[in-house]
Design a protein that fits this description.
The chain is of the alpha/beta class and about 280 residues long. The strands form 3 sheets. It has a 6-stranded mixed β-sheet with strand order 2-1-3-12-4-13, with helices on both faces. A 5-stranded mixed β-sheet has the order 9-6-10-5-11. The radius of gyration is 25 Å and the shape is globular. The chain contains 9 helices and 13 strands. The chain has 2 domains: about 120 residues, Periplasmic binding protein-like II (D-Maltodextrin-Binding Protein, domain 2); about 100 residues, D-Maltodextrin-Binding Protein, domain 2, CATH 3.40.190. About 35% of the residues lie in helices and about 20% in strands. InterPro entries: Lipoprotein_NlpA (IPR004872). Belongs to the nlpA lipoprotein family. This is Lipoprotein. It is a lipid-anchor.
Length: about 280
């Protein structure tokens, strides 16, 4: 019996020592700086990956590991953020976020400005927007906010007239259409492909870049004015995380001169860093 007790005591001591060594090793391996590394999942769409990749080393030094999660549909990143599958997303403007929150009874919030990306008109069939003929087809993004923005662009080009005082106009709000243009809403990602079938396509900037469209070939570009403020893109988080210190570090790392230069490089000068922009 005494021998059994000694063996049991020895086994317990050995197991305890093993646990202590294991825990010590795990703590040491968590970070070379001695602090636990935090992984932040950021939902993006398209070519923003190259911009975000440029800030990863800076955040890594602060114990923050950025994991980019690519999406292909505009609705997906907000769904993922709202459900907690990702921590932040960076792809949408303020107007889109507000509209998405309203439609889904959600309370996602902006925690930092990123860029403003003008919509542009592309064509394989005409060289100038003035060359549009009666009955020509125009493709535009079909999500509520970018559809409204595209229609306002057509109005600024004096191609249509919209009802006044409509916050988010739809094709049903066109009251004058002298050229009888056929306006076809499509998923934003499909607008570049539609160029084989339509006279002009109005394309979001990041979608255009992913489709290898050169911004310098656009035949008309949205003007940036004081009215453009709702179209500023943002980093979004859940409301409970709006003051999260780690996420604030992510915003701080993004809003730098080095990132502004990277944005200009990646988007070939067609996109503007918006955190210091004067509207």
């Amino acid at each position: 019996m005494k021998k059994s007790k000694k063996l049991l005591l020895f086994a317990v001591t050995l197991f305890t020592a093993f646990l202590l060594v294991s825990c010590g090793n795990n703590k040491k391996s968590s970070s070379s700086t001695g602090t636990e590394e935090k992984t932040v999942k950021v939902g993006i769409i398209g070519s923003d990956e190259r911009v975000w990749d440029s800030i990863k080393p800076q955040l890594k030094k602060k114990g923050i590991n950025i994991k980019l999660v690519q999406f292909t549909n505009y609705d997906q990143p907000d769904q993922a953020l709202n459900s907690g599958d990702i921590d932040l997303n960076s792809y949408q403007h303020i107007f889109y976020l507000n509209n998405w929150n309203k439609a889904h009874h959600a309370d996602l919030v902006p925690i930092g400005n990123t860029i403003i990306a003008p919509l542009a008109v592309y064509s394989k069939k005409i060289k100038s927007i003035k060359d549009l003929k009666k009955g020509d087809e125009v493709s535009i993004p079909n999500d509520a906010t970018n559809q409204a923005r595209a229609l306002q662009l057509l109005e600024s080009a004096k191609l249509i007239t919209l009802k006044s005082n409509v916050e988010l106009p739809t094709p049903n709000d066109v009251i004058k259409n002298p050229k009888k243009l056929k306006i076809t809403p499509l998923d934003a990602s499909q607008t570049p492909r539609s160029m084989n079938d339509v006279a002009i396509a109005i394309v979001n900037n990041n979608v255009a870049l992913d489709a290898k469209l050169d911004p310098s070939t656009a035949i008309y570009t949205e003007k940036i004015t004081k009215k453009s403020k709702p179209w500023v893109n943002i980093i979004a988080a859940q409301k409970k995380d709006k003051n999260n210190k780690t996420y604030k570090e992510v915003v701080k790392a993004y809003q730098t001169e080095a990132v502004a230069k990277k944005i200009k490089e990646v988007y070939k000068g067609s996109t503007i860093a918006a955190w210091n922009y004067k509207f």
